[in-house]
Amino acid sequence: MKKFISALLVVCLAACLFTGCGKKEETTTIYVYNWGQYIAEGDDDSIDVIAEFEKKYPNIKVQYSTFDSNETMYAKLKNGGITVDVVFPSDYMIGRMRQEGMLLELNYDNIPNAKYVDDSYRGLAFDPEDKFSVPYTWGTVGIIYNSKYVDEADVTGWELLWNEKYAGKILMFDNSRDAFGIAQYLLGYSVNTTDSAELQACTDKLAQQKPVVQQYVMDQIFDAMENEEAYIAPYYAGDYLTMVEENPDLRFYRPEDQGFNIFVDGICIPTCAKEKEAAETFINFLLDPEICAQNLDYLGYSVPETEAKQYLDEELVANDIAYPSQEQLRNASSFDFLPEETSREMESLFMTVRNG
Amino acid sequence: MKKTKSVLLSAPYLAWMVVFTLVPLGVVAYYALTDPATGVFTLGNLRNLGMYLPVLWNSIAYSLVSAFICLLLGYPVAYYIAHCRQTAQKFLYMLVMLPMCMSFLLRTLAWVGLLQDTGIINTMLAKIGLPRLRLIRTPAAVVLGMVYNYLPYMILPLYATLMKIDRRLIEAAEDLGCTPVQTFCKVVFPLSMPGILSGMTMVFVPAVSTFYISQKLGGTDTVLIGDVIERQFKQGNNPNLGAALSLVLMLLVFVCTGIMNRFGGGEEEVVV
């Protein structure tokens, strides 16, 4: 009897094994590589975008991983050896990756929801024919500060990040493009300069800032600002809206006269992708106005689809931190992609600031 | 016959060494000696290393200081454990090992939580009316992180050596009229030299190449060579320079351990 039962169990186990295999063959896995804290994951009553997607398309599984800056993501893809089906670079990085042949052309037959994207976010300089990218979000860069510790009178512009009064309480971008951008706005240069002398002047400016900087950070900024470990940090407007919910003393300031960065983050399929069609299905899902609105409502970043705004919280749509007016954007500029030598030069100059 | 048997037995390990140590080393050397843009042979990566010398020097200083502090803290502990009863020894040995069961990254992050300006220590100080201290993002915090994380690597080899010292030698020294201090200086300490050296090496080598500890506990000015290397791969997108720096670091570690072993070897001969 005992033998019979064990034999039966073995058969059952084996059967389970085979059914398991059978199912596996039908599902495809897509590898999604996104910024940290850049998709709603179901906390605080938000939508869990990936779970919703897998519910709607049960035969596609999503493997999700994150990066903390365009440069990190670029280095990882460039070094090769990994599979990524969907990636979320910013404007200038899309331009660079497109130029270097790192992106696949999108098949819009699989992305019908692309029609909802507003015209003002299509055909931009980094991808003039919209062949390689669709926009995910857009936003601006400004200074986040804690009104409990920072004197309003000091909040005059980017020079706040150099203010010795707050030495050790200032955070700074840990990526070359954003960090140089701030120095360029402060010194009055173009953010798309290729001039070595100007880049050198920015390097000196950033080196001069180093003694007052607490840490060079990206995603750790959330913790540091919410817990008041640091008082001042330049970051993205959308993330400010997330942080202020945790710490209501935080404020956001855009140096409108000096200029600041306005960016569009896109969704692309890199050449190392293995499941292009499933990736396009995922992109299409993200562009669905209702999903887009629920996702970005949580993230605080701005939606590139007017159609999606009807599903958004009215307060958020009226908020000029997320949706600045044309007047507020008068001096905003976007990062164009730079020639490869300039990108390299900027990266190595930033390394000298960090290591010096 | 015996020889072929031993070759066969060691084959899996040798294959492992070749595939996962020698081949990657070759890859590192290849990257270090090629140009990032064109991929042709060049010494350019090595030529630029001059600017990283201060950082390299810094890293060596930090790791040496940490290794010495580990020795000062670890020696009495190892000595004590080695002289306990058998059961107590096992228990204490386990206690030394215990922190290593938890992730090194988590343990370092726990220190951040303790030391930061809004951390546990400073919050408590503020509660009882004392001024807050600047604990984190100082050189001392980096050394603390290194000592805390690598102390077991010092204690374990020291304990192993101290335990093996023949008790009869100590008794003989005492019989011949040595004071306890003399016994320690002339018998125990020289005999434990191999343990000290392997402990120093086992602390120094991981400490000199660390980047996580300095990034979490250090400030913007406590940059170590490990940080620089990590950044070349992660953000700098210059694996070639990173590889060149790793190669130099590796050579340096070899030289340092070589010097230590030589110095130690001499000592041992004196004892024998």
Kindly report the oligomeric state of this protein: heterodimer
Average the pLDDT over all residues of chain A and give the rounded result.
Answer: 91
Contiguous helical run count of chain A: 13
**Overall number of structural domains of chain B:** 1
Largest interface by Cβ-Cβ < 8 Å = A-B, 28 and 23 residues
Order of helices and strands of chain A: HEHEHEHEEHHEHEHEEHHHHH
Spans of at least 5 consecutive residues with low confidence of chain A:
20-24
Assign the CATH topology of the largest domain in chain A. D-Maltodextrin-Binding Protein, domain 2
* Proportion of beta-strand residues of chain A: 15-25%
Which class do the helix and strand fractions of chain B yield? mainly alpha
- CATH superfamily membership of the largest domain in chain A: Periplasmic binding protein-like II
CATH first level of chain B: which class? Mainly Alpha
Count the E strands of chain A: 9
Structural class of chain A: alpha/beta
Rg value of chain B: 23 Å
Keywords:
heterodimer; A: 356 residues; alpha/beta; D-Maltodextrin-Binding Protein, domain 2; 2 domains; 3-stranded parallel sheet; 9 strands; 15% strand; globular; B: 272 residues; mainly alpha; MetI-like fold; disordered C terminus
Task: Please characterize this protein's 3D structure.
The complex is a heterodimer of chains A (356) and B (272). Chain A is an alpha/beta fold and 356 residues long. Chain A contains 13 helices and 9 strands. In chain A, strands 4, 7, 8 and 9 form a 4-stranded antiparallel beta sheet that branches. In chain A, helix 2 links the parallel strand 1 (28-35) and strand 2. In chain A, helix 6 (196-209) packs parallel to helix 13. Chain A is globular. With 272 residues, chain B is mainly α. Chain B has a single domain (53-271), classed as MetI-like (MetI-like fold), CATH 1.10.3720.10. Chain B is 77% helix and 0% strand. Chain B is globular. Chain A binds chain B through residues 69, 71-72, 74-75, 78-79, 168, 174-176, 210-211, 213-216, 227-229, 344, 347-348, 350-352, 354-355, and chain B through 51-52, 55, 116-118, 134, 137, 219-221, 223, 227-228, 231-239.
